[in-house]
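#lab-general

N.A. 3:47 PM
ok so I finally got the sequence cleaned up, no stray characters, all 310 residues accounted for. can someone with queue access submit it? mine expired

B.Y. 3:52 PM
send it over

N.A. 3:53 PM
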Amino acid sequence: MSAVTVSKVQKIKSLITLARPPFHTVGVLPFALGAVMAYQATGVFHWALWGWGTLAVVLIMLSTYLAGEYFDYEGDRISRRVNPNRFAGGSGVLPTGAVDRKVSLIGSFIALALAGVVGLVIWLGYDTGPWTIPLGIIGMIGGFFYSVPPVRWVATGTGELWIAFCYGWLPVAVAYYLPTGRFDPLVHWVSIPIAATIFNVILLNEFPDYLADQTVGKRNIPLRLGLEKSARLFALVHGLGWLGMVGSVMAGVPARTLLFYAPIFLLSAGLVVAVLRGVYHHPRRLEVACGLNIAVNLGTTLAYILGFWV
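B.Y. 4:20 PM
back already:
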């Protein structure tokens, strides 16, 4: 293989890493859950709507991640140097120079525009309800402006709440709404544990970025509360997720969901204990905790999917 070919392969690998495909699962799975709930309600799985909707979700997330890579460049560069963590500090691609920063910004705008086009295809092509476009716009605003100034939710202490909404309630509700044209109360219930766990994913991932975020002037929750109080908030929000799971079953989610959720609950409880005991003081253990925390979020959503589907 020639040097030119190797260079092209490396460039493609860098671009894929920059897009952060593993982190798209936190949006795709809740959207799949909403579609499964709609199937249970109507008896028909709308594959086309699910496919187009999933594409829109991926494009919005791609736009969000690429914008974050560009506008969080300095903080990510510091974080990668001071306290490297696979789940914090961005993809790490831009600081290496493997991809020009402008590529990330341009890619973000293109992905956002394509998401808008897909939204129009869904609304006009499948005659979905009047909330189709407004809900899509809310998702685009929440995602794109997460890192983009002058709004920049990530630096204000509201970014974590936007993530909870955009990765918790919104994908489940939209996936349910598109084929049914309505919002079932059960959608709100199942969104609580998902929103709680993705909130905690972002919260814990900000711990290793603490010094870097402080340097660049961010004012996210760990910087506003401090790490010790943020650890207590982490525990409180996980507790909210546990209560939400029980409440959702009482509201009509199949009881068998609790069987699928049981190992996720144990993992979640173990993480709470570890964080309250100060696991964030140990970089390598914190990295493991961050990874397991994502597993709790994905596992919670998967437990619901299995509970409804099986």
